[in-house]
Design goal:
D-amino Acid Aminotransferase, Chain A, domain 1; disordered C terminus; 5-stranded parallel sheet; 8-stranded antiparallel sheet; alpha+beta; Dna Ligase, domain 1
């Protein structure tokens, strides 16, 4: 097994990977930008390398600097986490060329699966159903008119090299098609360096269901069940659960077989996730994409199976065979995950920055928190606004949702605005409680994205009282030292100021 691994990431996923590395007796090496010098992922590593700069382009997306950091520290392998360079074939190739083990799939399979159009060809070869699409095209190409006339509107415009909702547009009428394709192409070029877009048939009100797979280098591939990721904002997931309340045992088995077949066709090795769109009216499912990395929502799978997916990534990358058989995969209970973002859900999800003046996560039976922050940390403008992931497990779905609702009520944050009120509203919604929801849940339920003033007022009052108590203790200490203080509002980012 490796003795030292560089984690080419930041935030909660870097902390999460560090935890498994240390538990396995492997020394984690962190990298950090100037803005992240005092971050939690640095504190949980045994060694840290500073990469000058604050923007992602200067630091966590800088392949030469990351590879050099691994070589200089004597790391034998690199774990990319998710996001940043985790699905970049050039990064995986650069690691290989430097004699480093990239903890993920090969650059070849990553490149094939990272292209939405090429991955559809692989899916078809594996016998996996796909959503009908046109080839990559420009707004004026003949395929645009031909495809739109065959399938009608609405249609989806998607970036061929895209993900995370970027380079994606829903086109409802023909008059908007050219403009939306141009906008999507420009967005894709800016985000991925590839402006190719394509048209796809629109599946109305689908469920977003994904299947986790593990594959070793000896041809042994299994799936670890599904995750329902249908609660989304701007095509990005905010709530995930397993098992999916939408799947029957037969449908679960068919989707699992399809995911394994696709991974085998792609020659995939390591952990990956095959994503599907499920039409709840017909029970038909369609291949969406395969994420060649660890998923943000992997903890819910770990919760119901008692597995450590990061450990299995390391073992597979080290050349070990899978010792798990498909019949060994027997989920127990139910798990739900909520992503905690520093953003204002009632004002178009605009990111919120500042100092975490109060950060008091909940604790209790069946709860897990994956977090990259702590009280006093600065939430900067440079990176994704996700602060943490809260996971609740229980023997039943009803109890898991109740645990999550209570935990969100006890989660106190001051200094930045978060989406916690929105998440509580989702947990309480009768439609969600029944498991009857799709990717348009937030759009079809505007009350969820409206603040519940009485409840929020009580939460704010408790948080302010706790913060004020802390400040009172601090002032008392200062008086004993002969120092006078002036404090500012907890909603300001400047924090307390000392006067001479």
């Amino acid at each position: 097994m490796f003795s030292k691994v560089l984690v080419a990431n930041r935030g909660e996923i870097a902390v999460r990977i560090n935890q498994t590395l240390r538990a396995m007796g492997i020394a984690p090496v962190a990298v950090h930008s100037d803005a992240d010098a005092n971050s939690h992922h640095v504190a949980t590593a045994e060694q840290a390398v500073a990469i000058s700069g604050s923007s992602a382009e200067e630091t966590y997306l800088n392949i030469p600097k990351l590879v050099q950091a691994a070589v200089d520290t004597g790391a034998e392998a690199v774990h990319p986490g998710y996001g940043f360079l985790s699905e970049n074939p050039a990064f995986a190739r650069a690691c290989d060329e430097a004699g480093l083990t990239f903890i993920g799939p090969s650059p070849t399979s990553m490149a094939a699966l990272g292209d939405k159009l090429e991955s559809k060809v692989i899916a078809q070869a594996a016998g996996v159903p796909i959503v009908p699409n046109a080839p990559a095209c420009l707004p004026g190409d003949p395929q645009v008119r031909e495809f739109s006339e065959r399938w009608g509107f609405p249609l989806m415009v998607k970036a061929a090299a895209g993900g995370g909702g970027r380079g994606m547009r829903l086109v409802n009428v023909r008059e908007d098609l050219q403009n939306d394709m141009e906008l999507a192409s420009r967005e894709a070029q800016a985000a991925f360096g590839d402006g190719r877009v394509f048209l796809e048939r629109y599946i109305a009100n689908p469920r977003h269901v994904e299947i986790q797979v593990l594959a070793d280098a000896f041809g042994h591939i299994i799936h670890l069940g599904e995750r329902d990721c249908s609660i989304q904002r701007r095509h990005q997931k905010i709530v995930e659960e397993t098992p999916s309340p939408a799947l029957t045992p037969d449908l679960r088995e068919r989707m699992g077989r399809a995911a394994v077949a696709l991974a085998r066709e792609a020659g995939y090795v390591n952990a990956g996730t095959v994503e599907f769109l499920l039409d709840p009216r017909t029970g038909e499912f369609y291949f969406l994409e395969m994420n060649a990395r660890l998923q943000v929502e992997h903890p819910v799978t770990e919760a119901v199976l008692g597995l450590d997916l990061v450990e299995w990534q390391l073992r597979i990358a080290n050349g070990e065979p899978l010792t798990l058989r498909q019949e060994d995969i027997q989920p127990r209970g139910h798990a739900v995950e909520c992503r905690i973002y520093a953003e204002d859900p009632y004002h178009d999800f605009v990111p919120s920055t500042g100092t975490l003046l109060r950060w008091r996560p909940p604790s209790g039976p069946g709860l897990r928190l994956d977090s990259g922050v702590a009280q006093g940390h600065e939430v900067s403008i440079y990176y994704d606004p996700m602060l943490a992931k809260l996971i609740a497990w229980a023997p039943s779905r009803e109890l898991a949702l109740r645990r999550m609702e209570v935990a969100l009520t006890e989660f106190l944050v001051l200094g930045v605005i978060t989406n916690i009120p929105l998440l509580r509203s989702v947990m309480r919604h009768p439609q969600f409680r029944l498991g009857e929801y799709d990717t348009g849940f937030l759009e079809w339920n505007p009350a969820v994205t409206s603040p519940s003033l009485p409840g929020e007022t009580r939460m704010l009052a408790r948080a302010l009282a706790a913060w004020a108590a802390d400040q009172s203790v601090g002032r008392a200490r200062d008086r004993t030292k002969g120092v006078s203080t002036v404090t500012v509002s907890p909603w300001r980012t400047a924090g307390p100021r000392r006067l001479p």
